[in-house]
């Protein structure tokens, strides 16, 4: 199954893309020789805000990656949002990754919490609890609790989340966006079977992070 309809270019990027294209076109008309840097910026904006449709795995119990990026943490840790011991899997996104965030599981949202904070490098361990972040706690149809947390980074200064407590999400459904480099932490039940390792590159929706038991 593919999550259509889909914007292809994230709606969050339309104003940035319009401005960068207008400047590049204006520079081309005024002085073509000076327009190259502005066209490079416009192409960067275009690639940053791309938001391609993805195939959604249908494996029972699968927990999908909520973001594109690289696995930087797989460890047992306290989930401060659901008050439990959990396995935390962290996905670090650089500026060249797709920054649209997708739900890792089907379920009903129990809680959404926003926390203002710092903007240290999202690749650092302390970013999970010190940086600006937005946590979503969801209960699957089988009663399992999954927490996924958007974490701002050194460059990322804008977390967007479009869901609230009581909403229902389906796996692979778009629920938010983080601008310009960041991280997403996923807290799993202790008996979940993790399918990724530190250093692995993952893709939102198509990569299975773990399987619930």
Description:
- The strands form four sheets. An eight-stranded antiparallel sheet has the order 11-7-8-9-13-5-4-15. The chain has a three-stranded antiparallel sheet with strand order 3-16-14, with no helix packed on it. A three-stranded antiparallel sheet has the order 6-12-10, with no helix packed on it.
- Helix content is 16%, strand content 38%.
- The chain has 213 residues and is of the alpha+beta class.
- A hairpin with a 5-residue loop joins strand 8 and strand 9.
- Helix 1 packs antiparallel against helix 2 (36-48).
- The longest helix is centred in the N-terminal third of the chain and has 18 residues, at 14-31.
- It has helices at 14-31, 36-48, 127-130; strands at residues 8-9, 50-51, 62-64, 69-79, 84-93, 100-102, 107-115, 133-139, 145-152, 159-161, 168-169, 174-178, 182-188, 193-194, 201-202, 208-211.
- The chain starts with 7 loop residues before the first strand and ends with a strand.
Q: Helix and strand layout, with pairings?
A:
Layout lengths: L7 E2 L4 H18 L4 H13 L1 E2 L10 E3 L4 E11 L4 E10 L6 E3 L4 E9 L11 H4 L2 E7 L5 E8 L6 E3 L6 E2 L4 E5 L3 E7 L4 E2 L6 E2 L5 E4 L2
Antiparallel strand pairs: 1-2, 3-16, 4-5, 4-15, 5-13, 6-12, 7-8, 7-11, 8-9, 9-13, 10-12, 14-16
């Amino acid at each position: 199954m593919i999550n259509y309809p889909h914007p292809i270019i994230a709606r969050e990027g339309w104003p940035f893309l319009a401005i960068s294209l207008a400047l590049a076109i204006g520079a081309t008309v005024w002085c073509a020789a000076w327009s190259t840097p502005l066209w490079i910026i416009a192409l960067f904006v275009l690639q940053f805000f791309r938001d391609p449709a993805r195939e959604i795995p249908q494996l029972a119990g699968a927990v999908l990656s909520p973001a594109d990026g690289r696995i930087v943490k797989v460890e047992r840790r306290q989930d401060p949002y659901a008050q439990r011991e959990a396995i935390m899997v962290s996905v670090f996104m650089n500026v060249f990754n797709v920054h649209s965030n997708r739900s890792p599981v089907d379920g009903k949202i129990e809680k959404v919490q926003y926390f203002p904070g710092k903007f240290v490098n999202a690749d650092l361990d302390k970013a999970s609890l010190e940086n600006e972040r937005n946590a979503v706690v969801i209960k699957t149809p089988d009663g399992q609790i999954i927490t996924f947390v958007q974490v701002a980074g050194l460059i990322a200064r804008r977390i967007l989340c479009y869901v609230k407590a009581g909403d229902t999400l389906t796996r692979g459904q778009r629920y938010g966006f983080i601008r310009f480099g960041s991280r997403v932490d996923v807290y799993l039940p202790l008996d979940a079977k993790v399918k990724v390792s530190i250093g692995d590159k993952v893709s939102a929706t198509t990569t299975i992070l773990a399987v619930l038991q």
